[in-house]
Amino acid sequence: MPQLNGGGGDDLGANDELISFKDEGEQEEKISENVSSERDLDDVKSSLVNESENNSSSSDSEQTDRRPRPRPELESYEKQREHFAEALRRQQDGGFFKGPHYGYPFLMIPDITNPYLSNGSLSPSTRTYLQMKWPLLDIPGAAALKDSRSPTPGHLSNKVPVVQHPHHVHPLTPLITYSNEHFSPGTPPSHLSPEILDPKTGIPRTPHPSELSPYYPLSPGAVGQIPHPLGWLVPQQGQHMYSIPPGGFRHPYPALAMNASMSSLVSSRFSPHMVPHPSHGLHQTGIPHPAIVSPAIKQEPSGDNASNSTHGKSSMHVKKEEEKKPHIKKPLNAFMLYMKEMRAKVVAECTLKESAAINQILGRRWHSLSREEQAKYYELARKERQLHSQLYPGWSARDNYGKRKKRKRDNKPDSPQECNFSPQPKKQCIPYLPSEKMCDSPTSSHGSMLDSPATPSAALASPAAPAATHSEQAQPLSLTTKPEGRSHHSHFPLPGKASGSTSSSSSSSSHPNISLHSQSASLLSRPIPFASLLSPSSPYHQAAIHSHHALLQTQPLSLVTKTVD
DNA sequence: CGGCCTTTGAAGAGA
DNA sequence: TCTCTTCAAAGGCCG
Questions:
Q1: Burial (CB count within 10 angstroms: exposed 0-12, middle 13-18, buried 19+), residue A510
Q2: Within chain A, which residues score under 70 in pLDDT?
Q3: CA/C1' separation A139–B15 (Å)
């Protein structure tokens, strides 16, 4: 599979993926983000802030209030993830920690003094950044490379912390996340005890062989070894992205049984838990894909499973069934991966805690990402999907339908079409920009979007379609021009399915909310497929790209002012 | 205490 | 083929 190649080889992948941050103006943003949160704030926020100010979002105010709040858990959480990610990366890449020459993601290295020991919160100033090779791309062969020797979880874990910083998570992180969630840090090494308590449920479960050998670099035990003062986020326990079902993940799915023969991708990253790789556990283990969540744990209360499960069997039966059919979560898409990675960072910068607000910011940032960066995530997401499909061949997104309590995405009939930026009464973020850090106001969602850097994304990311440029979207026109959301989706061609059709369009925005509710917002926010207008080949693209950064900053403001005012 | 909010993307269902 | 819907993460907020 060519696609897999994304990583086709670490080396190759690395090369391919090497992004010279320096070259492109966009990089500034990235750098700013990665390198210094402060700057990041400035860059991103400046625009946002303006918006927010204009918008005067209540949310901001709220946030401001909250600002002082400490967010230890979050950070710790992220750290954990990072740790995992790091470990994972290493495994996969086989020591991909090659050093700066890999120009990809920057890893932050907390100051030597292990910050984690303290409260987990690191001061940005102390961080050191390393450039890393983009890990995600899977690397076949990586398995071979993986340091087999590194094996001891502890080993990995120990290093990990050092390398990554919570706020600057490597893109791979998401993958790792699974593992994180999967293994509750706080829990003692599973392999040590015969029975494992399910972190969430607390129910003792027999350790499945696969569990014993953690699929992710960090085994529970390993985690436990990590001297994280915070005790590693417990939060995750509640939400395993891909958790092991109580009972040990008895994969009902054949795929789970895959063996080494499986695609390199899988083997390298997610080895089928069936594969016996016990002890070292760090790599190739048979850990179940994190996507699996035990119904009991994460499923919705309603007990969909139970109900549907059927046949009205006794609770026991139901349980069994549940075990058999663990809730397999959808693989994360590119944006979700990005969110996971960046959330902590945003939170740290903004001190916002509301996910809704943070997500807005993240959405904007997402759009502001350079195509390369987005491409990374798309690639990642693609791999995730592939892996997921391999692990759970029979799984269908539809399986999860109805499991989530229905979100009513009501179209909020009420605010139908206000073109005006009326908005969301809800929360707007007021920039508390006090000097130091301001946060992007989430509010931006509507008006802000205008200003917001229009998403560059458009063609960007997709490796497949590298064409469009940020500028395209950035254009104000986009705002007006395209009203409906869907179109904008097209910006990225999804590697996966999109490949077939540029897809993207899919659906994205289909959210009624967006379309109806805050049309303006949505419209604004989402990039217009301006690309269509502009041909990739067009010189404009190039220029646009370079100027993208500038656009982001400049335009937004103007737009905002106009719109808001 | 459970659902909502909010984001983008993927996938499925329906027209 | 296109449109619409649901779910994925996440965490504060609200009824």
A1: middle
A2: 1-325, 404-565
A3: 42
